[in-house]
Amino acid sequence: MSASGELLARLVAFDTTSRETNLALIDFVAGYLEGFGVPYELIHNGEGTKANLFATLGPADVPGIVLSGHTDVVPVDGQAWTRPPFALSESAGKLYGRGTADMKGFLACLLALVPAASRAALRRPLHLALSYDEEVGCLGVRSLLDQLAQRPVKPLLCLIGEPTELKPVLGHKGKVAMRCQVHGAACHSAYAPQGVNAVEYAARLVVELGRLGEALRTAERQDPRFDPPFSTVQTGLIGGGQALNIVPQDCTFDFEIRALPAQDPYQVIHQLQAHAEATLLPAMRAISGQSAIRFTELSSYPGLDTAVESEAADWIAQFCGSRDFGTVAFGTEGGLFAAAGIPTVVCGPGSMAQGHKPDEFVTQAQLDGCDAMLGRVLAFACR
Ligand SMILES: [Zn+2]
């Protein structure tokens, strides 16, 4: 097994499901970096149970390259794993374990680069940025970006190592996840018209959302670089009511908007709110003044849309040996780095076809390819 493969075994052994602490993994990485004399800082969450790690190899006072990945993984609960998810196993050139593709494989390659990078005469710095809570709404990286914004020099480039099979990716959609709480008025169902049926009003909002989603599919709003080539709206959870013979007082549903980078997802939310205010609430309040429709944002991240004609695109093409730029359907922390003014690209080992699934794996060949790509990043930083 390669050095990156051995490091991957160490990383997979830490259960860093987003609901758990990531501190044991962060301690391991910190100790590893100390062994090579690499300075780093930790940025903890409010409770002190999780941390981002930001390390710098080479001169800190000139613009460099941020190599970024998240340390958390999605749960294995309810998945039919045929192998232990938190112990790396190998078979026929594939390395199995939770997070091997998404995205501890990339983190392992970053750590495997450290011995050479710590000895190299770097003219530009390489920064390692490890975050927490990416899988639950890109939460952790925000405090890391706040810290970065305090620094006098802005990085040249951020490379997010999410699994793209090492293909250069310049864009992805943005996402907003929302909760809508409909509050009506309960009564005996025999007198249904005297109540305000929260389930029925929620259903009208869900239908309206579907209609708004349809409107986003029109040809002039499409962008063929994405699959599907338009923004989408989806209601994914709904709950309300107590018993069939009670008019339900409350109903809550969660929905999301996945927007093309050029489109504003909040427009859909504003349209839905306007529909609620103008059409639904007057009828609800005519029966009960307590009626309400509340919207809360659960999480969001912006889209990524790095120009093909840009230095960032030229550099990643150089590093991965391809100008076959693509987009990915899933979101990354890249949108947040880009929003912070740092040119950002996505390229990493493994495939999201294996991410979030039982028996997740990355191939040794992909790790080798990533080691080679990072070798070219190191060579660039020495020029
Ligand atoms: Zn990921």
From TrEMBL:
Gene3D superfamilies, per the entry: 3.30.70.360, Zn peptidases (3.40.630.10)
Record-level Gene Ontology MF annotations: acetylornithine deacetylase activity
Cofactors demanded by this protein: Zn(2+)
Superkingdom field: Bacteria
Annotated keywords: Amino-acid biosynthesis, Arginine biosynthesis, Cobalt, Cytoplasm, Hydrolase, Metal-binding, Zinc
Entries under PROSITE patterns matching the protein: ARGE_DAPE_CPG2_2
CDD domains assigned: M20_ArgE (cd03894)
Keyword Hydrolase belongs to the record: yes
EC number: 3.5.1.16
InterPro entries: AcOrn-deacetyl (IPR010169), ArgE/DapE_CS (IPR001261), Bact_exopeptidase_dim_dom (IPR036264), Peptidase_M20 (IPR002933), Peptidase_M20_dimer (IPR011650), Peptidase_M20A (IPR050072)
Domain Peptidase M20 dimerisation: from-to ranges: 171-281
DNA repair found in the keyword field: no
Catalytic EC class: hydrolase
Record-linked SUPFAM superfamilies: Bacterial exopeptidase dimerisation domain (SSF55031), Zn-dependent exopeptidases (SSF53187)
Family: Belongs to the peptidase M20A family. ArgE subfamily.
Name assigned to this protein: Acetylornithine deacetylase
